[in-house]
Structure formats: C-alpha cells, structure tokens
Design the sequence.
C-alpha cells in the first residue's frame, strides 16, 4: 500500500472517529448511564424469572440484556483506554515542563556562580590595589574551575538530553499494545 493511500485512509479514519466521538457515541453513553435506564434494566430480571415459560419474552429480554452488557463493556473499555492514553500524554507534558524548569534552574545556578566568581575577582583586584598603595605584594588566590552543573545531577548529563523523557517512559511504563495504538492517534491540541 502506498504512503499516500495510507495517509488518506488514516485521515479518513481520524475524521470518522472524530465524527463518532463528537456526535454519535455520547448518546449511547448518556442513555446507558441514565440512572432510570440502569434501574429499569435491573428490574427486567424480574419478568425474566416470572415469565420463564414465555420463550419469546425471555429471548427478547435476554437479547436486550446481552446487548446492553456488550455496549456498556465496550464503552467502559473505550473510555478507560482513552483516559489511559490521555494520562500518558499529561505525564509526558509534565515531564517536559519539569525538564525545562530543571534546565532553567541549572542555568540560573550557573549565572549565580559566574556572579560570585566576578565578585571574587573584583575583591582580588581591590585587595591588589590596596596592597600596591601600602607597598606590599599581593598574591591572588588560585581560581578553581566552576563545577559542571549537569554532572552534579544524580543521573549526570544524561538528564539534560532531549530524549530523556522518552527513554524514561519506555523503561518505566508497562507496555500495552491497545493503548500504544490509540496513543499514536492522539496529538496535542486536537479537539
């Protein structure tokens, strides 16, 4: 199958799913989660028992109950799977933000260290000027290299990698093919 055809089919399925999710599937969910429908469905067990000899009634009620059972199970599975996929997206976005904040704090720390070093150099210059005025010699302290901030992190500079989020998710999350398949179709910013 060509890439264009796959893209067309994918786009078509996305449009169909969007239409179903927006206009069709909410109605069975509203119907099946309506409290009186739930009570009425449970109450259908009584005529099922009382009129056990009426085959037509029993088969009709049984078919209705089976259909409702399958519909409810399918809806619960669909929404649970979608919720799981959305939760994974949320975790990824939160992790990206945490990584951005981490980089920002690290950069701020680096700037503070630079400022301290500049102040130390200025103090050394002032001490040297005072020593010159008094006719003394002044030996400035040795300058130590500032610490490598990414190396201070427990996981080292790997924590600063752009691929770190994906690698961590791959290592620590349990894989589920159904969720992964649905996850591929979810894109940020989609209605």
Sequence:
């Amino acid at each position: 199958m060509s890439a264009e055809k796959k893209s067309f089919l994918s786009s078509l399925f996305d449009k169909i799913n969007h239409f179903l999710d927006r206009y069709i599937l909410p109605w069975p969910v509203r119907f099946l989660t309506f409290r009186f429908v739930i009570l009425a469905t449970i109450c259908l067990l009584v005529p099922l028992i009382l009129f056990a000899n009426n085959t037509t009634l029993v088969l009709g009620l049984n078919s209705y109950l089976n259909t409702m059972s399958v519909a409810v199970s399918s809806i619960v599975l669909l929404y649970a799977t979608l919720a799981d996929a959305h939760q994974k997206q949320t975790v990824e976005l939160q992790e990206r933000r945490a990584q951005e904040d981490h980089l920002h704090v690290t950069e701020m720390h680096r700037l503070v260290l630079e400022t301290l070093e500049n102040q130390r150099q200025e103090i050394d210059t002032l001490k040297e000027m005072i020593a010159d005025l008094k006719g003394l010699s002044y030996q400035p302290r040795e300058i130590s290299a500032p610490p490598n901030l990414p190396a201070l992190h427990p996981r080292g500079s790997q924590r600063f990698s752009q691929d770190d989020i994906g690698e961590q998710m791959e290592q620590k999350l349990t894989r589920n093919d159904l969720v992964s398949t649905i996850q591929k179709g979810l894109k940020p910013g989609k209605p």
User: Anything to note?
Assistant: The helical segments are 3-24, 26-32, 35-43, 45-50, 55-134, 149-152, 164-172, 177-185. The chain is about 75% helix and 0% strand. The first helix runs from residue 3 to 24.
